[in-house]
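Homework-ish question, so no full write-ups if that breaks the rules, but can someone show me the predicted structure for this set?
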Amino acid sequence: MIDVGHGNCAVVTGAEWAMMIDAGASAAVIQTVAHLGITRLDSIVISHRDFDHARGLVQLLGRESLEIGAIYIGADAAKNPSAPETANLLVALADAKANGRCVVSRDLDDTFTTERLSGGGVAVEVLAPTFATAMTGPKGTSPVGLPMTSNSVSAVLRVTLADGLQILLPGDMDEVALEELTTAGADLSADVLVFPHHGSLGTVPDERGFAAAVMRAVGAHTVLFSVGRAQKARPTHEVLSGVFDINPEARIACTQLSSGCLAADTGLPNESAALTHLTAIPGEGQSRCRSCAGSMSLSGVGMTGPDSEAHEAFLVATASTPMCRDLRPPLS
Amino acid sequence: MTLMEAADEQYTGVVAVLDDDADQAKVVKIQLEDVGVKTVIADLDEVSTLDRAVDWIKGNAQAVICDVQLNLHHVGIAYNGAELMASVIGDLKVPGVLTTGFKDDVGMLVRPHRPRIPVLVSRDETEDANVLLHGVDICRAEIVGGRAPDRRTYRVPLFIEKAGHADTGVALDARVGGWSRKASMRFPAGMLGTPYLDYEAARTLTGRVFFAHVNLGAEHEADLFFEKVEPDLIDPVELPLHFGADPS
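A: Not a homework solution, just the prediction itself:
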């Protein structure tokens, strides 16, 4: 998982195969592709066309030496094609299509067969949006009778690595999508959860209850938050409390150091060289010393980088109010 | 050996300083000499043309610190600092740092030459010799080994938001596709062709998109540059008409 600040981006690799799930707005997206020596992405899945998930797509298309098999983009609320961000994205995608560079499709729902996205020994399932939800679209009414936003139609993907580790990447899934999935009895179980919407859903009246419901459905032992320090403090206390309500022993890691853990920038390390606990994977927060766990690597039993003890030592030394420690209930 | 290291070892090379503000030139000279770097201030009357300036630097210095504005406190200089540094770094292969005290100059005077100028330093920072010497080292590294990752370019669309008048000509503001910051980049409209030196012609570009190669790794708008501009000006509203079939 790449630290792109406020946004999401994950690179999944298998035997002679690679894909990207979401492409947030950070130079770390293309830097990571170069760092990992990736010359081909078999597919890029954008959970929904919000810019903290999609802007990096233009970067990837701009790297002309990168082969791309297919791009699948989930729907989003109406956007003006003559607005700068949308225009640039549309033009980049039209150019890629016109040059025959890759397949570009807005077709992304749970009717995708597992084989369609999987490869290299890695299985990729599209659990949401359901066909009915995707057909209805944002601003419609979900099959469970609730009003939908663009987050309600975010793609929810489960990746099963060759070694068996399961990771749930739910994009910006909200309570409407969760309600639909759980009502339908969908299996959302995974070892690792990338918590939806960067650890806070402003539209959810009961964030703690939502977080607990997500954790009950997923049962993850590791919960990751892709957050930008410049944003409001995320994850929220309510979300973390909800996570701990279900699994008090869950390992927590955030890409950047939340302002809820250290309010003033004056407490940040002075030089990125001091962030010795970070992986070698590029990250948005590194140059500005905003990283917490930074970009993370996952395999086998869970998170393999950064090292948990080194990450913990960084937190103890840097964060004045580390939420993942302070809010964790005492273990019996 | 880097200049930073050289400063510790009484580097014997000479750093040339070009600035039409004599007091500012002295400030830079004092800062550098305080850390043991030999410095010479150019007599602007002797380097009134670009060719003369390049020749003078070739014969007198191993590195250059130059301000963008050379004509505010002095008259008769036929070039600006960005034009000079582009030649000095790109052609002479002599490293240097461009300095500026004016934000407006970054877009209109510096941007066209930024592909060849790795380091731009604000005037406030010129009082720190280490910043200047580090900049010279970065520039030398680019001359020898090519662009650093944050200066590598990618082919991306640029959306033209508006045209306007600047002190030095007609300006365009564009949003760079894929760049991580929500900020516009200003540049002279003439970079897209001489017809757009005219404001009314430049105004017709509003809402259009063009492709160019941009250094997406830039942290700040001042460090952005573009090159290899493609001639097509795309109207994104017409795109649905042009979305083709997928490759078979």
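Now go work out the reasoning yourself. Hint: The first strand of chain A starts at residue 9 and ends at 14.
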